[in-house]
TrEMBL record:
Coarse class of the protein's main subcellular location: membrane
Membrane topology: Multi-pass membrane protein
Protein family: Belongs to the AzlC family.
Pfam families registered for this protein in UniProt: AzlC
Keywords: Cell membrane, Membrane, Transmembrane, Transmembrane helix, Transport
Keyword RNA-binding: no
Compartments, record wording: Cell membrane
Membrane-crossing segments per the record: 16-39, 59-81, 128-149, 161-179, 191-218
Keyword Membrane included in the entry's annotation: yes
Listed InterPro entries: Brnchd-chn_aa_trnsp_permease
Source organism of this protein record: Pseudocitrobacter cyperus
Name of the protein in its database record: AzlC family ABC transporter permease
Length: 221
């Protein structure tokens, strides 16, 4: 079955997807451990990992609630961070499947699966990479969360050991080839990054990510 659906992918792509999923699993272990250290019952991070399936939003949620914030405000902040999934959905609408399958396809849509899906040269490879990475993340994230909850307070937070930098580094490495090929994409990406960074000291949490989309308005002279 694996060869039937994913046999079109090259070895380098399969290796990269495996390494990304491994990194996701490691961060998930830290997430589960952190939730336990904050005093959350096991069902909270586990249910979040199964239903939300978005690491940044989940870390933000437990962090805000643990610091005394309102759970509703924490949920809204998580939604703001995940608002980037709207343009994601438009971009990968041909990859998520049709009818009932599209619900699962949308659920496993994340930064990693979108990047892998869009970086492949053929439609068949794009769809295979999107689904393989998405399903891999959907498996290792809850599994890692459960494992992390089991080890409790033995692991530090991601920021302490630098795991918070894993995903940005991976995604940057994956999108660099596309930026090299298109000067317009490079200008738009750079503009979005500059806008986001400039707004961090003034904008509420989650808003800089949305403001970065203004970079799409930049045009090549």
């Amino acid at each position: 079955m694996f060869k039937k659906h994913f046999g079109c992918l090259k070895g380098d792509t399969l290796k990269a997807i495996f390494l990304v999923c491994l990194a996701v699993g490691i961060v998930a272990v830290s997430y589960g451990s952190l939730a336990m250290a904050y005093g959350f019952p096991l069902w909270v991070p586990l249910i979040l990992s199964l239903t939300v399936l978005a690491g940044a939003s989940e870390f933000m949620f437990i962090g805000i609630v643990a610091s005394g914030g309102n759970p509703l405000a924490a949920a809204v902040a998580g939604l703001l961070v995940n608002a980037r999934h709207f343009p994601f959905g438009i971009t990968v609408r041909d990859l998520v499947g049709k009818r009932m399958l599209s619900f699962l396809g949308c659920h496993i849509m994340n930064d990693e699966s979108v990047v892998f899906g869009l970086s492949q040269p053929t439609p068949e490879q794009r769809k295979a990479a999107f689904w393989l990475c998405g399903l891999g993340v959907a498996f290792v994230w809850p599994a890692g969360t459960l494992l992390g909850a089991g080890v409790g307070k033995l692991l530090p937070s991601p920021e302490t050991i630098g795991l918070d930098a894993v995903f940005p580094a991976i995604l940057l490495a994956l999108v660099l080839p596309a930026l090299k090929k298109s000067k317009t994409s490079l200008i738009r990406a750079s503009s979005g990054a500059a806008i986001s960074l400039a707004s961090v000291p003034f904008a509420p949490v989650g808003l800089p990510v949305l403001l970065s989309m203004l970079g799409l308005l930049a045009r090549k002279k």
